[in-house]
Write a structure and sequence with these properties.
With 121 residues, the chain is an alpha+beta fold. It has a single domain, classed as Nuclear Transport Factor 2, Chain: A. 31% of the residues lie in helices and 40% in strands. It is globular, with a radius of gyration of 13 Å. The N and C termini lie far apart (33 Å).
């Protein structure tokens, strides 16, 4: 299967490694890509694990995120810029037959010795 974050790679050679062992992630961009793939695959447990404990969605929000990510069709991910702690990206998706985009500059930190998403800048 192709990886959702980069169709030129196989999932097994890309984001699956992070989904199995988050500590294998070595950069914020790699974490962001694995989070995008988790959204595409509705892997909500990984999304929560890869989210900073102070900004992590609640259990009720977890259900809303799962319902939303299953209700849309993800199209592609474009990484625009990556720095030591930030990743700017665009994630394209169809919702209600309309093409939409999430354009975000995300901030990442290490917590418990692995990279996590902290917030949007």
């Amino acid at each position: 299967m192709k990886c959702p974050c980069n169709p030129s790679k196989l999932y097994a050679d890309c984001c699956q490694k992070a989904h199995i062992n988050i500590k294998s992630v070595t950069t914020p961009e790699e974490l962001m890509r694995s989070r995008y793939s988790a959204f595409v695959m509705a892997n909500i447990d990984y999304l929560l694990k890869s989210h900073h404990s102070k900004t992590r969605p609640s259990n009720s929000e977890k259900k809303e995120i799962l319902a939303w990510t299953k209700s849309i069709e993800w199209v592609k991910l474009d990484v625009l810029k990556s720095t030591e702690n930030t990743v700017e990206f665009k994630a394209f998706f169809y919702e209600n037959e309309s093409l939409n985009v999430i354009h975000e500059n995300s901030f990442f930190v290490k917590q418990n010795n692995y990279w996590v998403y902290k917030s949007a800048l």
